Amino acid sequence: MSDVADRVKKIVVEHLGVEEDKVTENASFIDDLGADSLDTVELVMAFEEEFGIEIPDDAAENIQTFGDAVKFIKEAS
Amino acid sequence: MFDLTGKNALVTGASGGIGAEIARQLHAQGATVGLSGTRTEPLEALKAELGDRAHVLPCNLSDPEAVDALPKQAAEAMGSVDILVNNAGITRDNLFMRMSDEEWNSVLAVNLTSTFKLCKGVMRGMMKARWGRIINISSIVGATGNPGQANYAASKAGMVGMSKSLAYEVASRGITVNAVAPGFIETAMTDKLNDDQKSGIMGQIPAGRMGTPAEIAASVVFLASAEAGYLTGTTLHVNGGMAML
């Protein structure tokens, strides 16, 4: 697993309080990991800080799963 | 009670009568204050009066870019914004039938849109801190209406609806959003009224007098305090009984 994926996973596990093995490629933050809509905003904020990038609102809306997040961050950083 | 030591508060309209008193009282409770307003001179005078823990942050709220920049400037000056008091407001009174789009838009922009943008601008820091206090200064007119003030009343009622919606969204993060709705308060704005107007107003106030800026500021201090942590989405009507809502 890449470094980016590890770092994203760590944030998700810490923020949502879920087991690491639940955070799979297609795991949806809201449907599978118990996030509410405000949690997803906070996750995006945490990704921005961890990776020193800016995630515009329209892009943030498309980040629904763990895999989406890793893919976006790899492309942006 | 109501100790604000270590908290950083941004107050807009701090050059005006009510805003300056809000800043004074927050400061007296131990908060660091960011004094924002369009006129620098009274802000500098207030800073000189307060001494330590005061920063002057000039901002013209009718300039959207300046509004966007203000939360960042405040956080840089003070370290964070834990308390936001949206107090600045303007009036452009006219009969509804004669009210121009410009009169409508300028009042909505300063009173309501800038409040929206400033709330949004400080939200990230408050979410991370899991603590925040937003106090929006509305008006009795937002609840009762007032002839000649359709634009002002709409903006002040809008602040209440916005505050409630935001209060819902962020309550679980330790952030409260409330409004204070002053009635007739002794300020430069009400000094301009003539005696007939004043006696007409007095007849409608059960308390038989105008309120003071200090009485508005005291409500703000309360809402800003840790003790008011379970109070959110409400409006405190400070109006001497003029409208019991």
TrEMBL record, chain A:
Location(s) in or outside the cell: Cytoplasm
SUPFAM superfamilies xref list: ACP-like
GO MF entries: acyl binding; acyl carrier activity
Coiled coil (UniProt feature): none
Gene3D superfamilies: ACP-like
Record keywords, A-Z: Cytoplasm, Fatty acid biosynthesis, Fatty acid metabolism, Lipid biosynthesis, Lipid metabolism, Phosphopantetheine, Phosphoprotein
Principal location: cytoplasm
GO cellular component, one term: membrane
PROSITE patterns reported in the protein's UniProt record: CARRIER, PHOSPHOPANTETHEINE
Statement: the UniProt record of this protein carries the keyword Cytoplasm: yes
One record GO biological process: lipid A biosynthetic process
Pfam families: PP-binding
Modifications the protein undergoes after translation, according to the UniProt entry: 4'-phosphopantetheine is transferred from CoA to a specific serine of apo-ACP by AcpS. This modification is essential for activity because fatty acids are bound in thioester linkage to the sulfhydryl of the prosthetic group.
Signal peptide as annotated in the record: none
Top-level taxon of the source organism: Bacteria
Carrier domain span: 2-77
Pathway the protein acts in: Lipid metabolism; fatty acid biosynthesis; Glycolipid biosynthesis; KDO(2)-lipid A biosynthesis
Modified-residue entries (O-(pantetheine 4'-phosphoryl)serine), positions: 37
Function of the molecule: Carrier of the growing fatty acid chain in fatty acid biosynthesis.
Similarity comment: Belongs to the acyl carrier protein (ACP) family.
Name this protein carries in UniProt: Acyl carrier protein
Organism, as annotated: Sulfitobacter mediterraneus
Gene symbol of the encoding locus: acpP
From TrEMBL, chain B:
Ketoreductase domain residues: 7-188
Keywords noted in UniProt: Fatty acid biosynthesis, Fatty acid metabolism, Lipid biosynthesis, Lipid metabolism, NADP, Oxidoreductase
Domain of life of the organism encoding this protein: Bacteria
Catalytic reaction annotation: a (3R)-hydroxyacyl-[ACP] + NADP(+) = a 3-oxoacyl-[ACP] + NADPH + H(+)
GO molecular function, one term: 3-oxoacyl-[acyl-carrier-protein] reductase (NADPH) activity
Xref: PROSITE patterns: ADH_SHORT (PS00061)
EC number annotated for this UniProt entry: 1.1.1.100
Any one Pfam family match given in the protein's UniProt record, by short name: adh_short_C2
Active site: 152
Pathway where it operates: Lipid metabolism; fatty acid biosynthesis
Residues reported to bind NADP(+): 38, 87, 152-156, 185
GO biological process: fatty acid elongation
Family: Belongs to the short-chain dehydrogenases/reductases (SDR) family.
Chain's role: Catalyzes the NADPH-dependent reduction of beta-ketoacyl-ACP substrates to beta-hydroxyacyl-ACP products, the first reductive step in the elongation cycle of fatty acid biosynthesis.
Subunit structure of this chain's protein: Homotetramer.
Protein name, as recorded: 3-oxoacyl-[acyl-carrier-protein] reductase
Gene it is expressed from: fabG
